[in-house]
Design goal:
65 residues, three-stranded antiparallel sheet, globular, 32% strand, alpha+beta
Length: 65
């Protein structure tokens, strides 16, 4: 059942904004949702103490970081 929600929120294209795991099209969905309030996406990847983090914030339909 979770895959149906995932499929409905994404478009199957490659992710954007330099994120590793942000599904294609989901950034557009986050931008749409931000019309009602600020929305953020956070991603972290670590292994053996080495890794990286990224984040983005949307407000009023646009990325504001």
């Amino acid at each position: 059942m979770g895959f149906r929600a995932f499929d409905a929120a994404t478009d199957g294209t490659e992710g954007s904004l330099g994120f590793w795991r942000l599904p294609g099209g989901f950034d557009k969905r986050l931008a749409d949702w931000s019309a009602a309030g600020v929305v953020g996406y956070v991603e972290a990847e670590h292994f053996g103490g080495v890794g990286e983090q990224q984040a983005a914030v949307w407000a009023d339909g646009a990325v504001v970081h």
